[in-house]
């Protein structure tokens, strides 16, 4: 698929680039996407949830009242789950939600997500650029020039650029990442993918490994 290259002012430069077929032109695998997104979301969970069981509750261990003759049910401890303030039965315990996926499946998932974006014409290629200073206004001007104000965007750079990253950090629907850090969730979560010309080369090289 051939895409026109535009500059940060939203004007066509006259240049065109070919999106790599091996990355943007495969037959998407929905199941691979599902597993990769599931792993990403699972890895975001802290797993620090915890409730106290009856052996962890602070309270007296004496028997509340005599075993027989009261007309009520037997009770041996104020820490029983049956009483208010007692321990919780089968409550949540700290755990690790992460699980492993093999590299080939994760690579297939990312390429599938990118192919869906290409099919829907949601891939924009920008000429390589940088910002001289860190200013949120710089990134807002970029988004406005591309007529993407209010839309979720993901800008993919060939390498870390602090001026661009810090300029975008205060914008709610804008995210900046590098080609080697691109993940399936971010691709699907974005409305438009913005690539620089060099980031496409870096991306193709990363998938070729």
Largest sheet: 6 strands, mixed
**Unreliable residue stretches:** none
**pLDDT averaged residue by residue:** 92
Number of strands: 6
Globally, the shape reads elongated
> Helix-strand pattern, N to C?
EEHHHEHEHEHEH
Radius of gyration: 27 Å
What's the number of helices? Answer: 7
Task: Indicate the proportion of strand residues.
Answer: 5-15%
The first-to-last residue Cα distance is 22 Å
- Spatial strand sequence of the major β-sheet: 2-1-3-6-4-5
Structural class: alpha/beta
Helix content: 25-40%
Description of the structure:
The chain has helices spanning 21-24, 30-44, 103-119, 136-145, 162-168, 184-189, 197-208; strands at residues 2-6, 12-18, 123-126, 153-157, 174-178, 192-196. The protein is an alpha/beta fold and 209 residues long. A six-stranded mixed sheet has the order 2-1-3-6-4-5. Helix 5 links the parallel strand 4 and strand 5 (174-178). Helix 2 packs across helix 3 (103-119) and helix 4 crosses helix 5 (162-168). The protein is elongated, with a radius of gyration of 27 Å. The model has no long low-confidence stretch (mean pLDDT 92).
